[in-house]
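Re: [help] complex structure
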Amino acid sequence: MSEALYAWLIWILPLIGAIVTTILGKFEKPRDYLAVLFSFISAIFATLLIPSAIEGKVIHEQVEWISAPPLSIKAGILADPLSIIMANVVAWISFLIMFYSLEYMHGERDLTRYWFFMNFFIGNMQLIVLSDNLLQLFFGWEGVGLASYALIGFWHTDEQKYWVGKIGQRALGIDLAYSPSHAGMKAFIYTKLGDISFLIGLLILFSFSGTFEFLKLAEDTSWVKELSDRGLLPLVAILIFGGAIGKSAQFPLHEWLADAMAGPTAVSALIHAATMVKAGVFLIARLGPIFYLASQTANVSPFFETVAWIGAFTAFLAATQGMVSKEVKKVLAYSTVSQIGYMMLALGVAGLSANFIIGYTAGFFHLMSHAVFKAPMFMGAGALIHVTESKFMDEMGGLRRYMRFTFLTMLLASFSLAGIPPFSGFWSKDSVLKATLYANSPSSYALFSLGLITALITAFYTFRMLGMIFFGEKNNSLEKVEEKGHKVREVRPMMWIPYLVLGVSSLILGLVGPLIESNLEHLFGGYLKESFKIEALEVVDLSFIVMASSLPLIAIGSFLGYQAYMVRRIKVDKIFERSSFVRTFHKFFDNRWYINSIYYIIFMYGILKIANGLYRFLESIFDKSNDALALIIVSFSRAGDLFDIHVIDRAINGTASLSSLFSRIVRKLQTGITEQYVLFFAIGILIVILFMLI
Amino acid sequence: MVLPFLIVGILASFALILPGIGFFYKGFKNTHGWILSLIALLASLALLLTPPAYSLIQDQTISFTPSLTFDSLGIFFSIAMLMVSVFVVFSSYEFMKKEGNIAQYYSLILFSSAGMVLIAFSMDLLLLFIAWELMTIPTFVLAGFNKKAFESNEAAVKYFVLGTLSTGILLYGISLVYGLTGTLQLNEIFKILSQRALVDPLSLLASSLLIAGFGLKMAIVPFHMWIPDTYEGAPTTVSTFLAAGTKKAGFAAALRVFLIALPLKGLLNEWSLTFAFLAIITMTLGNIAALTQGNILRLLAYSSIAQAGYILIVFAIANGGTKALELGVSGALFHVLNHAIMKSAAFLVAALVIQHSGRADLDYYNGFSNRAPLTAFNFTIALLALAGVPPLSGFWSKFLLFTAAIEANMIWLALAGIVNTALSLAYYALIIKRMYIDEPQDNVKMPQPLAYTFILTLSTILIMFFGLFPDIVISYTQEAAKALIP
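Output below.
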């Protein structure tokens, strides 16, 4: 079999798996195992492509899709180092999470739906990764979205135990706790907004360049000039970036991800941590080189500036919310948003610097390491929720003695998240921070400092989370759980093996971290040179400066978290009581900076009210004019009566219907409002005529 | 060239024979009418799809009378519209089982179909008008076919009042055109009008009246008011026929008249704004109204209005250059075909449910996937295709239309279309959510008769096939577009 065929199979197999699952819906065991098997085979094919990625080969195969001049669109796969590495990350994490689901979802209702959408998701995600053109990528993009909404709302019965958020918490009068189906709807609306922007950008790009293919866009850059002559270039790039903002939950469309935690935890791990939310980053990684090429002939820096600033700001915004959240999954969700912010930051500054490759590699390296350490954290959190029957961290505590493997995994992954050397998160975060310093922009230092502060906060909330869950005394509520006969102890191996594997991988990835970084840089350097003619320029190595500034801050964050929540020498409660400053900020962060509430007030209630008001207003106008018309008609016919002519009546005799025209006042006939329609019709013609005369 | 006559002849003669048989042969049953009208429709479709028809086009448009043309555009429209007739007749096997006057029912559908085919091929305003009436008048009767049901009568009356009004307006518009140019042939009209240097108010008035006249059938806001009431009240198969079939005839006529005869191209820039404005309010109003409906028929009616808005984009971009127009016409034709399939499927599901339970409220669809799994699946595909979700066929036609709008420098129009598409997904998704997620009121299995299942599955296959391999349709619509673009 050729390598191109592998690349096709990687995304087609899971889709076939989804169909097979539906067919086997009645036979539970074979259905479940086959579903996992399909994701496994797809992962094997992904692995088979690794050698060609290392060689730096680009596998590109196309088939005719539409060939009707002037329209010519080909479908195809593009397996270059970028997509092969991404495909492997997606494939293997998906497989492990599918395996974990066997146990985690055991005994739930409607599992056919679950397996269908999981495989459907994997297939579409791989379609995004392996597409050779934007349109096909968009197909996958919509597909993963569909799977995401369906899976967030999987527990559709909306019992309160499935809700996300603390029930009763309100900010500015808006509830902050949501049912799964509400959360699904919310994800739908937010990401759809991004998709609209993406699609419009895509179509504009297409109408100027005549192609959707990445390689052609890079090859023939005449479209750049045409777009920039009309001042549309940064706009189109930012419109496309809008799709990434929605999908990857970046400010200002970040609000949906925290509430998407209402879905089953396996779903959160797969879709809302490791893969789908990275699709936005991947999109920018795909298009970044093309826009960077464009920057040689036109001004694209507003685009890259936007990407960098949105990334940096989101990283900070979400980290502050992670600091105060009490739900374990929400902490992880905020942290995901924040870490994706780092990736965006790296890709943004890459485009602003003379050496594109450093930032590009940093962003992608952070994507990989985040996927590897965040997925096990979610899976571990799923196990914790399963055992303690609570999603609130203050109802856990002291669990390190009872759940050793989970503790070990969470510890390894958390070190990586906090950025403690030599875990993978340390290396990748440092390379992101380093990349900001190379940016050829006035905001370079501001971005760097924002990234540093976020690193401190990240270390703090990571230790806070670990401390609250695993340290201190066993919480009272756990005893209540035990009284019910549900023993607090480690979950079964089928659950912990997958996440322990990933946890250990993040350690290994970290031990060889510098090696991976330089290899990736080499690989991408070669690839970008080959495919996009982007050269690597020699630059001064700043690693030491970055390390010297980031390590102390990470140490401070970790130490504070350690003191306050692990050994608990700093009494958090007392500080909270004494300092109104802390309380104010705590409230501000806990209410999500009020952004969520403001969105609800403006967009949901505000627009509904305006629309309603407008509707009423128009209604009353139509009513009045209708009455007036009826009155005129009636008086005419009265006048007719006087002269005993009955002109109108006679003219319409036989068509009993027309008499209803005069019925509104004369007789209250139930057939009702036909005359109103006729009126509209007349008004309509008038409008059209008026419009054309203008 | 004989082909259009042949097809109209076949359809009309069957339509004439049917009531006669029904009158003399007392044992006339639904099945007989069903078979006879299917024969007529399938024979016509076969004639249109056979190779001789294609070879005729290859040899460019032969015409032995200037009033009638035989081009790929007409063939395309006829195929789309006759397909709807086949769908409607096929499912009537179940739907009309217990009704009386069955021979007349099928006969009226055939008459109306003959009218639609004639519209698709006519190049002359007088012929167009006659064909228009041939199509419309039978549908008045059909809408009121349930003569004992109050709603059906109300639907027919409303439809009739507005329908005759629009016919009158259409005729007035045509007479103005004749007065201005002294001819009724579309090509001639263009020639004469394009010689005039100035735009005179009379030709504007004539055009406006024509928009209003066709607009009623095309479901353009503000000429849309009758639609929800009529679709709701008429027998559901007839609603299907109106929504998916006769509406397309409105577009066929409008495309010919506005793109060939009236100087849309180059002479009147205001036109594009007028149509863009109509397109935007039509789709927006349709979608917003659909969001709040609790009745499946009204919801589908409003969604049908919204879909008309998308197709209207093609008129708005007529000034935007040849490439834009080519893409736009191609997209509009593709959307006409898609809409014929998707809307028929959606309406026929509603017909099945109404026939079985008498209910059209959305609540009845809760847990529908348990009660009728295959129907629910087919319905889901049709709804997703209506929403333009890739990779179903509905995506491609919208893609073409929006690309055309951007090509014609009307990015805002494409934006409005895309926003509306997203908006429409909301109410389609809510129905799907009801069917698959919400708890049903009862769990009684619903029968899924073969007549419905066959048509619904066929439409699902077509939707998926055209979605995955759009090339087949697009290369044909591009060909057809050439009939309009010199």
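Chain B touches chain A through 64 residues (CB under 8 Å).
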